[in-house]
Amino acid sequence: MDPFTPTPADRFTFGLWTVANPGRDPFGEPTRAVLDPTYSVAKLAELGAYGVNLHDHDLVPDGTGAAERDRLVARFKRALEEHGLVVPMATTNLFTDPVFKDGAFTSADARVRHYALQKTMLAMDLGAELGAHTFVFWGGREGAEVDAGGKLLDALQWYRDAIDYLCEYAREQGYGLRFALEPKPNEPRGHAFLPTVGSALGFIATLRHPEMVGLNPELAHETMAGLSFPHALAAAIDAGKLFHVDLNDQVMSRFDQDLRFGAENLKTAFFTVMLLEEHYDGPRHFDAHALRSEDEAGVWAFAAGCMRTYKLLAAKAERFRADPEIQAAQRAYRVDDADTPWPPRYDASHAAALKVRAFDLATLRQRGPGLERLDQLTVELLLGER
Ligand code: GCO
Ligand code: MN
Ligand code: MN
Predict the structure, then answer these.
(1) 214 pLDDT exceeds 90?
(2) Which CATH number does the domain 8-318 belong to among 3.20.20.150, 3.30.420.480, 2.30.30.30, 3.40.50.720?
(3) Which end of the chain, N or C, is surrounded by fewer C-beta atoms within 10 Å?
(4) Alpha helix locations (H) across the chain?
């Protein structure tokens, strides 16, 4: 078999909303028919995916009665079983209904905040019923265009209160869910609250159950903010907070594009895969969609392409680790020195000695780290010349 054909062991997942995206944008109507969730399950299984993730309303439209909800869920579960797919992550849509037009947990209207809690608890019940272990919180409409309302600090407190409340709910139900906050700088709001991985990490430390809450960083979102996704991933990993990941692609400083993984920034995708392969064991989730110009065949080409590119880059990452010249260049980049052991152990006499120590600054200033060559070797490896 082609080694780059995905299998469930690769643990690739797609949001139901990704492949079913009908191609609507702010300027134009849908270009494709909406896909039935059970059809998406069958097609994704055929392509070698491991699972599907969903918002409450991807499966159960808002306002559905209890009996119809149970019927839809049972039918979906049968499709999962039949095709051998799992649901590792679930989330709530807190952005489509106009009730959330000025935010959900950060709405200035306490009634909306309570409704958002209700909707999220019901979405958690659904996620738990489908076997999800991770519950994602993407801020959607948590944000503002106008700050004259005076809620900037309150909004963060309301957000915190809501997550604290929902942690208690999930614990009491024994759902074993971990929460993953998904930062995004803008769209649909002008300025989102918790816009980047860094800000979300700071926020998590202020929660009542910080151990339950981590991150779902998205490649496109950090890129929209002009930030590096591998750097953001490293920060999440360093904090022990990489609970989930949203893979896609994006041109920097453009509207939210949700491009096929690897479509735009190949080197970013490469270092993303390398970090994930070495430091993350959760599902590799794609949160992207086919170009609006595509028909249904384009949708499945898009989905297969995301997975295949990931596998191609994972093989390249292995080559990178095994390439003697690259490894030698990486070793040469770092200088370890017996007289300057790291980490430095602080005590008063060490500090006193360090303050008067003479360094050969001329040599240190002149040393070239070899990064041009190392980067070129990386490019050649990616281009298939190594
Ligand atoms: C976006 C977000 C969403 C979320 C999804 C799951 O830019 O619209 O990335 O796709 O990931 O709502 O929470
Ligand atoms: Mn996104
Ligand atoms: Mn996302």
Answers:
(1) yes
(2) 3.20.20.150
(3) N
(4) 16-19, 37-47, 56-59, 66-83, 110-129, 152-173, 197-204, 219-224, 229-238, 266-279, 296-322, 324-333, 348-355, 361-366, 371-382
